[in-house]
Amino acid sequence: MASPNQRLVRPATSGLEAPLEFDDSVSQAAVSTALISVFRGKFCDAILPNRKTVSFKKDEVIYDAGDKERTFFFLQDGFVKVGTITSDGHELIYDVRKGGDVVGELCASEARRPDRAVALEQTEAIPVPFQDVMEVVRRRPDLLARLVDVFCKALGEAYAQVNTLAVDDTVHRLCKVLLKLAAKIGQRSGPEVEIPTYLTEEEIAQMVAVRRERISTSMNFLRRRRMIAYTNHGHLVLNVKALESYSAS
User: Rounded to 5 degrees, what angle do the CA atoms 75, 81, 85 make?
Assistant: First the structure.
């Protein structure tokens, strides 16, 4: 079976803006997103009691790419961006996590971390060593089977993400990123959804894998059409129905 982290073929992008890089970053994102669903619910109930919580300040690095310490971080409060540094030095963000989620789960597949996690604001997390996590998995065959299934499906999800990057223009890619944020961390605010943590245009550009200038233009485009707005605190407010309609066009 092909590894979910093997290099993906770089697709053609005739006439469209090419993403910064298509290498292992996309497959890492697919594996990471799939894995966090495994380490929730009953798993947390089995491993977190009597463990100490650690605090991380805004912009503090929780772990960095290349680190060898194999530790999971079960988020209790706050928001964390998860991403990587590509081989040409660009930062990519492929997920934003909140309380109840896990970061650091890719250490289950690799001894050296391929990703990095940074606190977007004051964040509380419970660190759990890899060996403790694996001991729970060994005691629970149902979790082990689910873990194997996740890795099998992750490669297909990675290729689907590559297809989106290769085919969609910047605005459509931005819409899909905003919709993903709305689904994962958004808070309903009347008919709209608010993203409850501050994200810079540079960070959004790192999620879409384009230059910040492109994002600035695209954000203004969506704002003029009232698909997005900002609160007084600078939080994004999304018109989800309008974004879904535009994204499907």
Answer: 130
pLDDT in tens, 35-85: 666 666 667 777 888 999 999 999 999 999 999 999 999 999 999 999 888
Q: What residues contact residue 8 under an 8 Å CB cut-off, 6+ apart? A: 22, 23, 24, 26, 27, 158, 159, 162
**pLDDT at position 213 over 50:** yes
* Residue that is written with structure tokens 């499907």 in the block: 248
- For residues 152 and 81, what is the distance between their CA atoms, to the nearest angstrom? 25
Q: Looking up tokens 């129905």, which residue turns up?
A: 241
Q: 236: helix, coil or strand?
A: strand
Query: Which residues lie closer than 8 Å to 146 by C-beta, 6 or more apart?
Result: 38
* Cα-Cα-Cα-Cα dihedral sign, residues 68, 69, 72, 77: negative
H/E/C letters for each residue in 151-216?
HHHHHHHHHHHHHHHHHCCHHHHHHHHHHHHHHHHCEEECCEEECCCCCCHHHHHHHHCCCHHHHH
Which runs of consecutive H residues, i.e. helices, occur in 37-65?
42-47
Closest C-alpha to 86, from 115, 121, 57, 123: 115
- What whole-number distance in Å separates Cα of residue 108 and Cα of residue 70? 8
- Measure the CA–CA gap between 48 and 106, rounded to whole angstroms: 19
Helices (H), 65-169: 130-139, 141-167
Residue 207 burial (10 A CB sphere; 0-12, 13-18, 19+): buried
* 95 contacts 81 by C-beta, under 8 angstroms: yes
